[in-house]
Write a structure and sequence with these properties.
- Helix 1 (about 10-20) packs across helix 5 (about 70-80).
- The chain is flat and about 40 Å long.
- Strands 1-2 form a two-stranded parallel ribbon.
- It has 6 helices and 2 strands; from the N terminus they run H-H-E-H-H-H-E-H.
- The chain is mainly alpha-helical.
- Helix content is about 55%, strand content about 5%.
- The longest helix has 17 residues, at about 95-110.
- It has one domain (about 10-110).
């Protein structure tokens, strides 16, 4: 049976490890329930900034989400998990959803789910 999991633990560890690398050694992601499939939706810096500027920011977002150096470290933390990555830079919402579903179906047909 496929595992459904929120990304909260992985996001919290990635963001906090980017703030303070010492957390990485304390937070062992393997000790938590692991989803069967985790996909990282990524976009290049220019597109990320365009998307962020089109939505209202929360006060905590302004400090974190506009700091390019910090976000590069967060991206490195996420990529260290060896996740499947979908580059959404040139994709609309419908295309992203279609690609996510395709990858889930592909993994399911291979018996990975």
């Amino acid at each position: 049976m496929p595992t459904e999991s929120d990304v909260f633990v992985r996001v919290a560890i990635a963001y906090h490890s980017a703030m303070n690398g010492a957390l990485r050694s304390l937070a062992k992601i393997e000790q938590y329930l692991q989803p069967d499939c985790t996909i990282l939706l990524a976009a290049d810096e220019k597109e990320r900034i365009r998307r962020l500027s089109s939505r209202p920011l929360q006060s905590h977002d302004e400090r974190l989400e506009t700091n390019a150096h910090f976000l590069i470290r967060v991206d490195q933390e996420f990529r260290a998990y060896n996740l499947e990555v979908i580059d959404t830079t040139k994709l609309g919402i419908d295309a992203v959803v279609a690609e996510v579903l395709l990858r889930i179906r592909r993994r399911s047909s291979m018996g990975a789910l």
